[in-house]
Amino acid sequence: MGNWRPMTTCTWLTTLVTMVIFIMLCDCHVDPECHMTTPQIIEYYGHKVETHNVTTEDGYILTIHRIIQKTAAQKGVVFLQHGLLDSSATWVMNTYNNSLGFVLAQAGYDVWLGNVRGNYYSQKHTTLTTKDPEYWNFSFEEHAKYDLPAMLEYVLKNSWHHGLLSYVGHSQGTLMALIEFSRNKELAGKINLFTALAPVGRINKAVGAFILLSDILPEILAITDKLGIYDFAPLTPVVSEFGILLCPLIPSICSEVFFVIAGPDEYLNSTRVPVYGSHAPAGTSMKNILHWDQIYQAKQPQMWDYGSAAENLAHYNKTKPPVYQYTGLQVPTIFFSGGNDYLGDPEDVLWLIGQLQAGVLKHSYTYDGYAHLSCLWALNAREWVFDKIIQHLNGVWQ
Question: What is the pLDDT of residues 273-299, one digit of tens each?
Fold first, then answer.
């Protein structure tokens, strides 16, 4: 120990380059799904797929994917909405019999997969490009206010069953629904079931890597703003390829990345980690990340804080941002949550349950060994989550 010296920047770079070269030259098995898009994965498993473009009221062009069933049976329409830094791939990138998108299609449902503005699949606009700072001027408020209604109304008009659909959201996908279904009664009236996976209505008790960065996040984003960087964690070929090559070689490292962010998952399918890492993170805006930080710091779910009483007064006619109210939710709701969830902490889930009107929450399932991503990818997700979702869906689509 007496001869140990800290590594210099040059030594670190040399070591990193050496590791990259070694990884690139090694004979590692790479799952073909690592290099596929969501439509390609769907086709890989024998389904036809449709890609649809949806334009929001404020000009963003979103891409949604539809899984075409192998049989003609139709039970109902289900829309799946991914969470923060995720994409439509999350519903189909586990094994075929353990991915909710495929399981629902097998069960006879018309399955649609959403993508919010700014992620890998939804980066177009009627007048802006991703090089324009204004393009990235959004957070989960715009996801809820514009993206969600645009996608759901489009599906309602273009699916086989006009008038009703069932909604399944994960993480930020649950927050979007909680916000919009509580205030948009017309839209909420067209939803016959809201299933929330890892529900998030506030993040007061959240822990993990994201919270550790919380105190310095505004300073980090101020620097990136000066550098002209307005997107956050985009899915790029370099990042994707590094994960594809590294994860099969040292799977424990990639698993730990998920654990420090989402919580320890006792049921993680470690063999699929390279596939997960090749499709996520799928990008969002810096403003969205800061909005999440704002609600953590404020200890309440609130709209965007403009940073001063005067600015808030100009936008909201009050000096502080309005707080989201979930008491207006009237859509029949099902919760699936985990005891090890770092972002959807059990105390926050209990608080959220307490915000709902009596009778709205039809059932709440909690699994001690589940973390934030378990409801999507756990080894036993089919038995513990997906089959139960189908039971509830069958009940509303009889």
Answer: 889 988 999 999 999 999 999 999 999
